[in-house]
């Protein structure tokens, strides 16, 4: 469970507009485009037309006990989102109790008096998707999307958590979840720059201010959490009169009234929580703080406190932050990244909370760069924006981009539920999302300029993070004081009617798949979806990171990064600005097996968006200046990877299990090798494109609200005359045999790591085109479910990890099995031993139990209803079916096939494929702490430097 959800307010804070530079120099246009005519501006629908499409109808009622209920009816799929928001967050925690709100979120998932089992596991069997809970400064929320027949059971369980929880929360449960939360904290703190947010809060806010401490809390306060104190937190804050319940989807108000009264009506009111008041502090004088961390590059930032969500000036500040440093066309990007190339990346945002906000901007200094020069330049860019104000054109692009995201967010019933709940909780108005959107559309350059001048002329907090040895880390106590049993009042349990039975879930109705062919022979695979007026296009090339030669690792991904930054008629800034004007997203990405050109477009702007996509795919400039700029950025990113635990492990393991010569024997993120990136020429990149990015190596996948005939016509106009080059098409060479592996450990030394990252794995004797349905369901029980054998052991029993997963990472050819386990450093050796023991037991005498089989098969079939709720999910299914050679109706056949699986079939599939004696274990951690533990396991241990 994350301790932060990206809310509507947070999304508003980071919508990024474009910005032409004013007082600073423009970047050079691509050299190859100098003699070519510049492309005309593409026509776009006006922002007012887009805003009119953002609407979430709702009704509201309140129970006698104070529970506020919002209902949104949406019959597009037989699913209902159940989202409950409690009006309490970390800002409401008293001194000495930091982290309690988030700790209690974890306790809420441990079951309740009338359902004394893991809530996550119970809901998985219901078929829930989008299932989670989050805590932030101002609220705690719990949400899930369930098939309609599971709604009553879900409401029973949520009401039992609200009204009948404490009998299930004992000392043992508290101690376990305390350890899990502390490992969640270690996991975040262990990342590069992972301690900087604490410093920012402590510098901006005085002692005792509600926003001064982080949501995750301090180790000391978590140690001190006693059973009775935690129970009091629930009694004081979790009453129905302190909550908003939203039901969104396949439901109407009359049904909602009946069901909510039935399951929540008996819960008595609790104390009314009045959210902590919080002023907007101003520093007496500028504060400058220099921190050190094991990072690759210096990062400099500036932060001020600003008004909260409902203050009219917060919109103007959010718009200003976007113009300053949001998307690629921002002023900071144009000046520091593209123009003078002083920084490898920049950002800006106005993070808005209920009572206040935080406006910040930052830049990462390029390797060998001058941090002082970066600071001076970024401050000058802000000063220019404040002095001269933004243009109306910049603001229009902010509004269009934001409206586009809002429209696309309407696809998910849970997304709409969150928007309604947030407005009700913070502003007393479910329509606040509309109020905010209309404020964006109405904001003027003068208002943005005025708000920025008012709030950003105050004393600023300046933070500089330099490479170096990290400050001392404050660990948890070996024996937490809160773990000392203290007699607590017995909890009187209240009997309830039995859990409602769940009705039958209908089979998924996957959209019909149609096909067409463009004039040049390119095949189009299409599915219709009219939930929102959006078209998604994916042009898939049979390439991917596996297309890189062993002596050219990173060529594919570097080529794509350059293709994204300029065509023969549009430079990088112009491409970014066009996308923002259209409310479109066009770009490139890759997996191990495929390279994808993606388009997400409002259908109203589809023709212009396809023109832009075609230009980027067919006419990349490969401008020498852009290549050198992006080469510097890529080398900086590679240096940064060597400071990140997950990246270090991901770079090491593939070659250990596949062999360095296999197309899969390289980092799964495709970022490449420093020597290769340094040596790639413009001619190399053009040759790579001509080999792989070509119409005779591609297939187009589309999900749209338009009919196929219209889609085909528009695609043909954009791509129908594209012809393949005369050079041969690329072919990937996969060896018939792979090296045999045996159990061993590779330890990558990363000093001062409070946590170790364990990544283990083997190559399975299966490929993506094989039928692995039985193996997948067996591994749900073993490795991927919340209460999988390995997670139940390391997280839910031992409390050594925030979360452990064993996954089948499906590739087109031989597929890897990967175990990912971030664990507290002093339990690293024991954790590997425990993992091996769990695999050996499951694959030996203790296979699938009847209870596990029943829960897994029910969850796998019932969750299908919510798994293809969005056009993006449908598009992904079309592409997967194609790559893995599945029939078009594959999704509709799953339920029947899954119901027919037996425990012996699951056991046999797992035992035939997974072999822990062949696992190679990569451990990223502090060798001084970890090495003795690993050597005690009796496996060969090789130690490597992180560099």
Radius of gyration: 28 Å
Q: Can you count the beta strands?
A: 23
Strand order of the largest sheet: 1-2-6-3-5-4
Count of discrete alpha- or pi-helical segments spanning 4 or more residues: 34
Mean pLDDT: 93
- Our estimate of the beta-strand percent is 15-25%
Shape: globular
Your description of this structure?
By secondary structure, the chain is α+β, with helices and mostly antiparallel strands. Helices cover 41% and strands 18% of the residues. It contains 34 helices and 23 strands. β1 and β2 form a beta hairpin. α4 packs across α29 and α26 packs across α33. The protein is globular. The two termini are 32 Å apart.
List keywords for this structure.
947 residues, alpha+beta, 6-stranded mixed β-sheet, 34 helices, 23 strands, disordered N terminus
Summarize the structure.
The protein is an alpha+beta fold and 947 residues long.
Can you lay out the helices and strands and say which pair or pack?
Layout: H1 8-14, H2 47-51, E1 59-62, E2 68-73, E3 79-86, H3 100-107, H4 119-126, E4 129-135, E5 140-147, H5 151-163, H6 171-189, H7 196-204, H8 219-224, H9 227-237, E6 243-249, H10 253-264, E7 287-293, E8 299-307, H11 313-325, H12 331-339, E9 343-352, E10 356-365, H13 371-388, H14 392-409, H15 413-427, H16 432-442, H17 445-456, E11 461-467, E12 513-517, E13 523-528, E14 534-541, H18 555-563, H19 572-582, E15 585-590, E16 595-602, H20 606-618, H21 624-641, H22 645-658, H23 674-679, H24 682-692, E17 698-704, H25 708-719, E18 744-749, E19 755-767, H26 773-784, H27 789-797, E20 805-808, E21 814-824, H28 828-843, H29 850-862, H30 864-867, H31 871-883, H32 890-899, H33 903-913, E22 920-925, H34 927-935, E23 941-945
Parallel strand pairs: 2-6, 7-11, 13-17, 18-22, 18-23
Antiparallel strand pairs: 1-2, 3-5, 3-6, 4-5, 8-10, 8-11, 9-10, 12-13, 14-16, 14-17, 15-16, 19-21, 19-22, 20-21
